[in-house]
Amino acid sequence: MSEFDASRWDELLRKLRRRLRGDASSEDYLHSAFIRLQRYRQTTSVSNPDAFVLRTATNIAIDHQRRGRWIKPEPWETACELMPAEGRLPDEALEARERLKRVNEALGRMPPRTREILLMHRLEGMKYREIAATLGISQGAVEKHIAKATLVLLEYAEG
Fold first, then answer.
1. Which of 29, 89, 106, 127 could form a disulfide with 156 if both were Cys (CB 3.0 to 4.6 A apart)?
2. Considering the entire predicted model, what is its pTM?
3. CA-based diameter of the chain, in Å?
4. What is the pLDDT of residues 111-144, one digit of tens each?
5. Do both 110 and 133 map to the same domain?
6. Are residues 38 and 106 in the same domain?
7. Which residues constitute the domain of residue 50?
8. Residues 57 and 82 in one domain
9. Which residues contact residue 135 at a Cβ distance below 8 angstroms, ignoring those fewer than 6 apart?
């Protein structure tokens, strides 16, 4: 990706939008990441520029979110608001909300990389090998992050 290639750009943008759940600023993040890649290449060799750009763009988006510039409800929060309460007893609905609150808290306390990998697997339906290739890590590392996240979620969900 040493030169601008429109088809490569479109593919990276599509992947980034999937990661960021269609965020309107995805192209800006990708552009910033590409500039960082060019600067980084001046001093260091990059073996996988696509992974570098995607990871950098994702990190930029996370930084913006942390600074409050990119506040967006998480998919699990939106899904719970849309879930019908019909057919549930009030105590069941309250229990479900409390459990969701604990799960949401657990997700918020996970290391960002672990949370990202869990969400890529559970929400985006990505396979471990796809996640590993996208993030430039081993499949074993993905498995460890998933196991760690699952344990944290179980502990929080059970109270």
1. 106
2. 0.43
3. 62
4. 889 988 988 888 778 888 889 998 999 989 999 9
5. yes
6. no
7. 6-66
8. no
9. 51, 55, 116, 117, 142
